[in-house]
Fold this sequence. Notes:
- This protein has 15 helices and 24 strands.
- It is an alpha/beta fold.
- The longest helix is centred in the middle third of the chain and has 15 residues.
- About 4% of the residues have low confidence.
Amino acid sequence: xxxxxxxxxxxxxxxxxxxxxxxxxxxxxxxxxxxxxxxxxxxxxxxxxxxxxxxxxxxxxxxxxxxxxxxxxxxxxxxxxxxxxxxxxxxxxxxxxxxxxxxxxxxxxxxxxxxxxxxxxxxxxxxxxxxxxxxxxxxxxxxxxxxxxxxxxxxxxxxxxxxxxxxxxxxxxxxxxxxxxxxxxxxxxxxxxxxxxxxxxxxxxxxxxxxxxxxxxxxxxxxxxxxxxxxxxxxxxxxxxxxxxxxxxxxxxxxxxxxxxxxxxxxxxxxxxxxxxxxxxxxxxxxxxxxxxxxxxxxxxxxxxxxxxxxxxxxxxxxxxxxxxxxxxxxxxxxxxxxxxxxxxxxxxxxxxxxxxxxxxxxxxxxxxxxxxxxxxxxxxxxxxxxxxxxxxxxxxxxxxxxxxxxxxxxxxxxxxxxxxxxxxxxxxxxxxxxxxxxxxxxxxxxxxxxxxxxxxxxxxxxxxxxxxxxxxxxxxxxxxxxxxxxxxxxxxxxxxxxxxxxxxxxxxxxxxxxxxxxxxxxxxxxxxxxxxxxxxxxxxxxxxxxxxxxxxxxxxxxxxxxxxxxx
Length: 568
């Protein structure tokens, strides 16, 4: 959210430069960000803002005068301002946490295959005009942020650098219009009809039936895409449906009927197609809730996404979609979906999917009984955070429970940001934990929480719910009861052998209304299926099939990864 477009080599943007020398790793920078759109450059996004003791390596950047918003211009005298982000990261080797896995980076990701630069290391930074820098927490506070009174006796034992921010829920707008989508409507009309294409054509929602989907998925598996004109129109038509839905959707399940909840898919087309042979297609008698993380990592995210769009167009009242943490611009830039869209269609299509994801609801309630969400439930109020907080810390952080009506009427038409919309971040990113209370999550440097069984029970009791079905985490059997008892929290994950390495089974959860109340869930498990030799992450930043990598490779040595045939 609010990532910047910058160029450290552009004199019109840069007001000065600053040089720092590092003798140890890490430097004290918590996260870097590339320039939006190009994926080039590296801006200091978050950093430690003090040194814990003389000589603290994690205070080097701050003590050396580096500040958030500075961008790396030169490393050891070499101008890198036009380099790809991951090539810069490989060279500085300033290890940061991988937000998706909670592990330190262990391998290079850049197409240049740079080795870490020798220490001591001198880095020259570009200092931009003030409007280029990311907002710090202090700037947000000075800019109208509402912070809790530190004189409250509940918070007197917190360390002095702790932040306490009020839990605000931004209200949904009366309506939402996207300039990007409106421009693309006109653009689609200018696109020519496909020549030589023999697959199904999209002429409106009424043209999608089982035969259309059967042929489309079979073609996908053989490397044939939908025509670009049809792909744009399908995506725009689904945006028009989603934008009218509520942030929290309601799914009635009549007595004797069932509903199927599907967890993370992550662009694993061949596993997705196999899953459909087990559970059927969605229909009025077989409604589906797709519970987020449709895309990224898996190299067929485009094909999986268009399959979901086709289902939504075919049965808009019986196919429901929840946004996941990977339905966001930053994730899509890093983990492959936008690179894949650009490679298989064109870059102009990426903003359309960004708007589709912003329009996607955050959660659904099944039969007024079961809360279905990608990540978890509302986090602590106020938002408590301090440097050094760890996973052994647990605290009781909410005295007023959030209602389903508040979620239903909250604003989702934005990118996840814990300062602007903490509720959205909690619903997309949080995870259950075994201990009571809230705790910090290792998924991000700040702003993401874990929640204990007492927290989930309180939320469900307050909203007359009996269960929470969520996804977001790999489970060995494809599902897991993370919180048991009267108010269970259950994870369901539908991408088997995640990233071609995890070795996990996948599952979907089926709830059936028996006697007027939902029973279950029953789980349908399945294993990973064979697929063509295209690796997970192929289209991610620095991946072998990312357009920037392909362009660089065309000017250098050949790659062992051959892209699959494409036609439309």
